[in-house]
């Protein structure tokens, strides 16, 4: 028994390390989305550039189901181990090359095109990785403990994001702001190749899963995993239920708590980028153990209501949570300390004109520090450069820095969202594995998972940002909450379907 547990921990370690690195590679793009929007897209319209970056980010999610089909089929035909070895190398290579692409100023529209191609390759790789890792671990796990053991794989996505934030923070710490903006942002992409190589060396010594080896020895593997998974009406019913009754809601809850929250802090609350990353990182660090707790709980009380409870809580509390977040940096409710006000004017001469920079900084009574920077673009004669509509070209940037109780209140609000994620995500690997038979498990579980996460979840940043931007254009007083309608509606629909149609007869007694 002790030997089996030791072997299982080796399986967990090897699988988790590779999956963690793939998530790191995938999320480094999202973590640097604001910076990347200035590097790979035209700089004359920052909002359009940021939306284009989010759309490119989302493209990686959209193709994940195709990666699930392609690599899932390979996994059910030739084995779990060799398939996710390929996905690891594909992901690492694509991430490294993103860090090598010249900027938009250097190669024009070829830059966003190359980024899009590599982002699509990342999505295909991740589409094959997760299903393989989850299936591999589940097939090594004892009956009645799959929720606990597979939940360790579930922590890798959050740790991947956490490590991406830490790497970015360390890079910013050791470089000046100018160095980071010029070339330092490339380092998090480039160093991933080292981590991928280490993971490859570890994974190549792993054995195939015992359940798959037995099925292969007995001649019970599938000759056509795609047809048996989706051409069989009985199995297709479970695929659709897994998607619309679990994975869809899990996807939007996951991306709201970890990506929409980060975007909201930076673009709506105008929080200092490093501080926003640190706040999210602290919440992730405290929240990650709950993946294992929720996974183990699902072994005791069942997968269904642990997952659906997380969705229901999200539906009921997202708007109050984000309202509270917004008010933390709402300057309309704060009192400025007049003695702290500082105004500075700078003028930087460039080849094509002059940047006139107006800086206004101050501190408020609750410790909040605010810096407004307005950059006006002038021609060589010192006259304002006009846009097509006749307005002067100006770029405004506001940065808010929190202190004391406000800082920790925001950490707490993000932490609550991370708890919802652990409830929906901790048990889902075991839930999906137990629905499908061994011979088509990799293929059947990968598709609903990656449609739920890749399509419904991956589109969340772009769709929610669009909804919020549209509400702001229409002068809605609570425009900052408009983006939440997408995850709330999707989670509510998933909760209803899951409540009605997920039953004990679908799989093992653990459900």
CATH superfamily of the largest domain: MFS general substrate transporter like domains
Proportion in β-strands: 5-15%
Number of strands: 4
> Could you tell me the radius of gyration in angstroms?
24 Å
Shape: globular
Distance between the termini: 26 Å
Pfam family, one: Sugar_tr
Keywords: Cell membrane, Membrane, Transmembrane, Transmembrane helix, Transport
Transmembrane segments: 12-36, 48-71, 83-104, 110-128, 149-171, 183-202, 234-255, 275-293, 305-322, 407-435, 447-467, 479-502
Subcellular location: Cell membrane
What would you note in describing this structure?
The chain has 511 residues and is α+β, with helices and mostly antiparallel strands. The chain folds into 2 domains: 2-329 and 405-506, Growth Hormone, Chain: A, CATH 1.20.1250.20; 338-401. It has 23 helices and 4 strands. It has helices spanning 2-31, 33-39, 46-62, 64-78, 80-98, 104-107, 110-138, 146-174, 177-182, 187-190, 192-203, 210-217, 225-231, 233-267, 273-287, 289-301, 303-328, 404-425, 428-435, 441-457, 460-473, 479-482, 485-501, and strands at 342-350, 353-363, 369-378, 394-401. A 4-stranded antiparallel beta sheet has the order 1-2-3-4, with no helix packed on it. A hairpin with a 5-residue loop joins strand 2 (353-363) and strand 3 (369-378). The chain is globular, with a radius of gyration of 24 Å. It starts with a helix and ends in a 10-residue tail after the last helix.
List keywords for this structure.
single chain; 511 residues; alpha+beta; 2 domains; four-stranded antiparallel beta sheet; 23 helices; 4 strands; globular
């Amino acid at each position: 028994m002790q030997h089996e547990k030791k072997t299982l921990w080796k399986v967990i370690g090897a699988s988790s390390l590779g999956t963690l690195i793939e998530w790191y590679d995938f999320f480094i793009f999202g973590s640097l989305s604001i910076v990347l929007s200035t590097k790979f897209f035209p700089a004359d319209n920052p909002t359009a550039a940021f939306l284009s970056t989010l759309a490119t980010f989302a493209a990686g999610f959209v193709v994940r189901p195709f990666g699930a089909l392609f690599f899932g089929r390979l996994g059910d035909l030739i084995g779990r181990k060799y398939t996710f070895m390929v996905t690891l190398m594909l992901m690492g290579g694509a991430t490294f090359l993103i860090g090598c692409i010249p900027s938009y100023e250097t190669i024009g529209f070829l830059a966003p095109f190359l980024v899009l191609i590599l982002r699509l390759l990342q999505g295909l790789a991740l589409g094959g990785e997760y299903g393989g890792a989850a299936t591999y671990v589940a097939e090594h796990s004892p009956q009645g403990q799959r929720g606990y053991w597979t939940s360790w794989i579930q922590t890798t996505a959050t740790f991947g994001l956490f490590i991406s934030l830490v790497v970015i923070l360390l890079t910013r710490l050791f470089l000046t702001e100018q160095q980071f903006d010029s070339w330092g942002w490339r380092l998090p992409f480039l160093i991933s190749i080292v981590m991928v190589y280490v993971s490859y060396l570890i994974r190549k010594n792993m054995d195939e899963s015992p359940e798959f080896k037995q099925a292969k020895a007995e001649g019970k593997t599938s000759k056509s995993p795609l047809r048996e998974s989706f051409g069989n009406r009985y199995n297709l019913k479970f695929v659709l239920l897994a998607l619309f009754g679990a994975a869809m809601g899990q996807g939007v809850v996951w991306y709201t708590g970890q990506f929409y929250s980060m975007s909201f802090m930076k673009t709506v609350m105008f929080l200092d980028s490093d501080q926003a990353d640190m706040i999210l990182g602290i919440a992730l660090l405290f929240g990650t153990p709950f993946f294992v707790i929720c996974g183990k709980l699902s072994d005791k009380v069942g997968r269904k209501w642990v997952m659906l409870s997380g969705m229901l809580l999200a539906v009921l509390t997202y708007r109050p949570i984000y309202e509270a977040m917004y008010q933390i940096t709402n300057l309309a409710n704060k009192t400025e300390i007049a003695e702290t006000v500082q105004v500075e004017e700078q003028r930087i001469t460039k080849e094509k004109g002059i940047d006139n920079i107006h800086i206004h900084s101050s501190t408020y009574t609750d410790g909040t520090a605010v810096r407004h920077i307005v950059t006006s673009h002038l021609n060589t004669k010192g006259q304002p450069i006009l846009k097509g509509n006749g307005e002067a070209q100006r770029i405004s940037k506001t940065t808010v820095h929190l202190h004391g109780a406000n800082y920790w209140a925001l950490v707490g609000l993000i932490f609550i969202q991370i708890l919802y994620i652990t409830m929906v995500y901790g048990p889902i690997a075991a839930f999906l594995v137990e629905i499908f038979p061994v011979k088509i498990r990799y293929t059947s579980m990968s598709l609903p998972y990656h449609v739920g996460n890749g399509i419904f979840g991956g589109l969340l940043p772009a769709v929610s940002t669009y909804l919020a931007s549209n509400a702001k254009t229409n002068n809605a007083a609570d425009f900052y909450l408009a983006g939440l309608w997408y995850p709330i509606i999707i989670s509510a629909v998933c909760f209803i379907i899951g409540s009605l149609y997920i039953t004990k007869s679908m799989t093992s007694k653990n459900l």
